[in-house]
Known about the structure:
Blueprint: H1 2-18, E1 22-26, H2 38-49, E2 61-64, H3 79-86, E3 89-94, H4 100-117, H5 121-124, E4 125-132, H6 140-145, H7 155-169, E5 179-184, H8 185-188, H9 194-199, E6 202-206, H10 222-237, E7 242-246, H11 263-277, E8 283-285
Parallel strand pairs: 1-2, 1-8, 2-3, 3-4, 4-5, 5-6, 6-7
Helix pairs in contact: 2-3, 4-7
Amino acid sequence: MYVSRLVAFAATFSSTLAAVYQGFNYGAERPEGGFRQLSHFETEFKAARNLLNAPAGGFTSARLYTTIQGGTKDNTTSAIDAAFSTDTSLLLGIWCSAGTEVFQNELKALKTAISIHGDKLTKLVVGISVGSEDIYRTTDVAIVQNKESNPGAPPSVIVSYIKQVRDAIRGTALAETPVGHVDTWTVWTNSSNQAVIDACDWIGFDAYPYYEAGMSNSIENSKSLFNTAMQKTRDAVGGKPIWVTETGFPIKGKASDQAVPSPENAKSYWDQVGCPLFGKTNVWWFWLHGVGSPDFSIISDLQNTTAEFDISCSAASVSPTSGWLPRCADTNF
Length: 333
């Protein structure tokens, strides 16, 4: 009995490690205004899947910031139905930067999704992210320098929220779903946040060399900055799988110190940073389509799946130049 159970576990574990998820980030709000509805999610998921000249594996996964449908108190997001209809895997998000009441609404939306979809969620949901950059939002850099108005949440609250999510999924179709937290790389390298690391199955890594003002952040140095941030994070998290949950470079907008937005520089960043990751670790790029400044869009029109620059990775470097290399452990938990 023990041997057969061990063999079954090994087979499942190998299958899990073989899966690498690639996709984009999607909020509840539309870039043009209003909230994303089922049709909007379906259109965007299909556009991502059908991107012309996409690198191997394509973009068939979506990271959500919230499980609540935009414009409602606690209804489950229509992105789940869109994911089923477009065969898109999901990294579910639980919004944690708006206080306890909103978090409880997130839990209700999650429980409703489980009640409605049951075992069908098992293959759809690749992970649950409890929060997104919540600890960063409590820092002086966020509040003073970047004028962050969202209250965020301290480490102790995030740990509590992670426990509550685990309690909510225990004994359900999502019981074995890996649970983690997404934050900026500087949060993970701060030892005061160790309790959050300990509470996570995986680490959500956000890094933008574009925003690293004062760090010689020209496009020529972007790869080195990214890899240094990744290596420092890896050193801090004790072997836990690292998923790249946000990164990208804008095609237009204002310069951030030495980082100058342009399609050419966005392509350079894609080739230097994205291409060595694709197919090797889980990546959710920021993002497919949006508006505003800076503009990180890959495509400017959802009806035209030709990217703003060559995304084929045909001319890209195949491995990072600094000490960090993707590991099998970073593909999934």
